Amino acid sequence: MTVILDGKKLRDELLDGLKGKLSNYVNAPKLVVILVGDNPASKIYVNNKKKTAEKLGINSVILNYPSDISEEELVRKINELNQDMSVNAILVQLPLPQHINKNTIINAISPIKDVDGFTPENSGKLLAGETPYVYPCTPKGILLLLDKYGIEIEGKHVVIVGRSNIVGKPLAVMMLNRNATVTVCHSRTKKLSEITKSADILISAVGRNIISADMVSGGTVVIDVGIYKDENGKTRGDVDFENVATKASYISPVPGGVGPMTIASLMLNTVELFDFQNKRSCD
After folding, report:
1. Active-site residue flag, 93
2. Strand-pair partners of 89
3. pTM over 0.90
4. Is 51 a catalytic residue?
5. Which of 30, 113, 114, 116 is catalytic?
6. Is 49 a catalytic residue?
7. Within a 10 A sphere around the Cβ of 189, how many other Cβ atoms?
8. Could you tell me how far CA 242 lies from the centroid of its own chain?
């Protein structure tokens, strides 16, 4: 019988624990989210993050800048936040307008306030097998979900479809650090289905319908990271859920799987950065 990986349930468990922990804090952690422009989807994401943070007792602030803000001005704003001792975590909501270089902006964030774990220092620590200040939110959420359900990673063949800096690349390294054998596939991969059928754990993070039942072997653990709206406005993932679920041993749904875990990881990261900064100031 296929087990559905319930990200909502685990998110609620993690956030309840975090809320209890924060109730004992004298000062609340402060998360600042930078939103550039008026992308409707980005506004929804940012507001959801703010609501979740405030329910936990995290001080969440949204800084909304016009879409024509210059790259230089945005870097100056981030530098101000880096110097502000009351700010513990900084998140820049992507995507950014075309005239702004994403890497320049991410690189401007202090590594100890980089709640997404995307800065070169945090990425470098991860690649070197060291512990970064925080792990990227979506990969962290995936590992928390696998661990919750007792799914073994060590020695398993993990196939990741998608090579983004947000999910695919950091997740591949995190899996390697857990002693998995990892294959990363992408748009130029040949004979994709042959590779996906060899997976013990198959993770797809592309953002379009790409994984059909004939690409999955029986008993595979399937993690669907992709999310998009189909032509009827229905939320879907990368995986043909109904048909793949008949073959998988475990499968994450969309929505309700990895998405809630990403939000939970963001909140966990915010508190971890707050704790680290307070400990450092006391040492």
Report:
1. yes
2. 31
3. yes
4. no
5. 116
6. yes
7. 14
8. 25
